[in-house]
Amino acid sequence: YEASNRTSLMKRLFWGIDMSGDRELVEGEIPKVKELLKEAPVKWVEDRNLHITLNFLGNVEEEQIPKLVRLGAEVAGLCSPFQVEISGTGGFPNKSYAKSIWLGVKLNAGLDCIHTKLMERVAPFSKEDNRKYIPHITVARSLKGAKSEVEFDAGLTPLNHEVKEFVLFESLMENGKAKYCPLEKFQLNEI
Predict the structure, then answer these.
(1) Cα 191 from Cα 183, distance rounded (Å)
(2) Residue 51 annotated as catalytic
(3) Which member of 11, 115, 117, 136 is catalytic?
(4) Of 188, 171, 168, which is closest to residue 54 (Cα–Cα)?
(5) How far is CA 9 from the centre of its chain?
(6) pLDDT in tens, 113-157
(7) Residue 68 · residue 166 · CB < 8 Å
(8) In terms of pTM, does the model score above 0.70?
(9) Given 51, 121, 141, 161, the catalytic residue
(10) Residue 136 is among the residues annotated as catalytic for this protein
């Protein structure tokens, strides 16, 4: 076959911080949110998929993954471990018409280091535009055609989470459900 006849396999990728192992979040705060929104027409994000998105890449040719892994390792070497504070709630596109419901993550120097350095290096691959970065953990999505009001900060406890690594994830569909699979993990530099 000629090169022009070959089709490359595309993978839907994003950079993120895995939050699925944070027991305070999974066992403490998310059940509170579920109770507060028990009547809302939403689909809850599975615990295994909880993450803070750093950069959405979209569909990327499989042969580009080694280059992305090298760029991720480079960024990890430039940033140190840090704490993030999880507090507040929000929704996209806004709180009064939320298609996506989330817990807020306060932007700090550590989070900004990873996000900015990834954006600088992966711009040719990225599907993100120049919108302001709003770090968050999506916990639910409104069912198709439904509208959810997001006014439920009462009773939520701010949490701190130590970040020692970030991940290049592949987004897959498995039995009609999203599944985020780590392709590579990047340990932050213990300077």
Answers:
(1) 25
(2) yes
(3) 136
(4) 168
(5) 23
(6) 999 999 999 877 666 666 788 999 999 888 765 655 555 565 678
(7) no
(8) yes
(9) 51
(10) yes
